[in-house]
Amino acid sequence: MKTLLRIDASIRRRGSFSRTLGDAFVEAWKHRYPQGDVLRRDIGHEPLPHLSDEVANAFFTGRRDLQALTLSNHLCDELKQAPEVLITCPMYNFGIPSTLKAWFDLVVRANETFRRNGSQYEGLLHNKTGYVIMAMGDGRPGLRTTENFEYYLTDMLAFMGIHDVRIITVGGTAMRSFTDDWQTTYQQSITQLLNN
């Protein structure tokens, strides 16, 4: 049975473009996989704790049974069991929300999602597909911040072994020219994403 892990990073409860498009994506995904299971991790509404000294030190013990690692273990297990991962994410001050950074800090973990192989690092999350839905207020073409935003997210997923990453960027949401029927436009992008 197919499993999709959905991670929402927006702090907005209403009017979130990334969440709205994420809802449309999940609806299309469920239509394609009627028996599929969707796990949801809403880190925008239920923020994760930022990395602490205790947890960071526990990472280096090589033990998984330490109490300090309980949350990290659970998050890693969620990620491992889902062959498909959806991240919906707005841009805040040219970067990802700190809540999403906290999630990455808890799941990018040696011998859980990556390992050292000689002088190289090897991702351990094989045969997975990542979907990223990004939203940003500015929409001018050629912005370096947009590219950096995409590169960061794809690099983090690739580091853990998720190399098949497909992205939809909703740009210009704060501009007057942004259209009211944007969902119709991006619905086509969702279909293309799932058909690739």
Show the helix and strand layout.
Elements: E1 3-8, H1 17-32, E2 37-42, H2 53-59, H3 70-81, E3 84-90, H4 98-107, E4 114-117, E5 120-123, E6 129-136, H5 144-159, E7 164-171, H6 182-195
Describe the 3D structure:
FMN binds at residues 10, 16-18, 91-94. Homodimer. Its EC number is 1.6.5.-, 1.7.1.17. It catalyses: N,N-dimethyl-1,4-phenylenediamine + anthranilate + 2 NAD(+) = 2-(4-dimethylaminophenyl)diazenylbenzoate + 2 NADH + 2 H(+); 2 a quinone + NADH + H(+) = 2 a 1,4-benzosemiquinone + NAD(+). By secondary structure, the protein is α/β, with parallel strands linked by helices. The chain is built from six helices and seven strands, in the order E-H-E-H-H-E-H-E-E-E-H-E-H. It has a single domain (3-195), classed as 3-Layer(aba) Sandwich (Rossmann fold), CATH 3.40.50. The strands form two sheets. The chain has a five-stranded parallel beta sheet, sandwiched between helices. A two-stranded antiparallel ribbon has the order 4-5. Helix 1 (17-32) crosses helix 6. 33% of the residues are buried.
Features:
Rossmann fold, five-stranded parallel β-sheet, two-stranded antiparallel sheet
Return residue spans where pLDDT drops below 50 for at least 5 consecutive residues: none
Structural class: alpha/beta
What is the CATH top level name?
Alpha Beta
Largest sheet data: 5 strands, parallel
Domain tally: 1
How many beta strands in the DSSP annotation?
7
Order of strands, main sheet, comes to 2-1-3-6-7
The CATH architecture: 3-Layer(aba) Sandwich
What's the rounded overall pLDDT mean?
88
Share of helix, binned:
25-40%
Q: Give me the Rg, rounded.
A: 17 Å
CATH topology term: Rossmann fold
In angstroms, what separates the terminal alpha carbons?
20 Å
User: What is the CATH homology-level superfamily?
Assistant: Flavodoxin domain
Strand coverage percent:
15-25%
Helix and strand succession? EHEHHEHEEEHEH
Catalytic activity: N,N-dimethyl-1,4-phenylenediamine + anthranilate + 2 NAD(+) = 2-(4-dimethylaminophenyl)diazenylbenzoate + 2 NADH + 2 H(+); 2 a quinone + NADH + H(+) = 2 a 1,4-benzosemiquinone + NAD(+)
Family: Belongs to the azoreductase type 1 family.
Pfam families: Flavodoxin_2
Keywords: Flavoprotein, FMN, NAD, Oxidoreductase
